[in-house]
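We both want to read discrete structure tokens more fluently, so let's practise on a single case. Would you write everything just below, so we can both look at the same thing?
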Amino acid sequence: QVQLVESGGGLVQPGGSLRLSCAASGTIFSRNIMGWYRQAPGKQRELVATTISGGVTNTNYADSAKGRFTISRDNAKRSVYLQMNSLKPEDTAVYFCYLKLLGQPRDYWGQGTQVTVSS
């Protein structure tokens, strides 16, 4: 059974930084996609950033995250991270860790961690 556990959310002032972490447990194949989505109140869940592993590691960012957020992963720790800089109030949302095992039908989600950007 795959489980994802996030940490690192919190309250930060505009312009500040936060680092989110997500650790996966269970059977994880080497070829997978890990990443982050977010959902603000009254809005749909949206992509923030993803990273594909298995050979060459590729990353993908939403336009809103480019230049401010950096996704990274540690395959040995089965973890993915999101470094968020220059945070804006519109970044306020619940951030969800995401895992897709390539070749498998289902997606896995963490429980979410709240990020609030406010002065």
In short: The first strand starts at residue 3 and ends at 7. The mean pLDDT is 93. The CA atoms of residues 6 and 22 lie 4 Å apart.
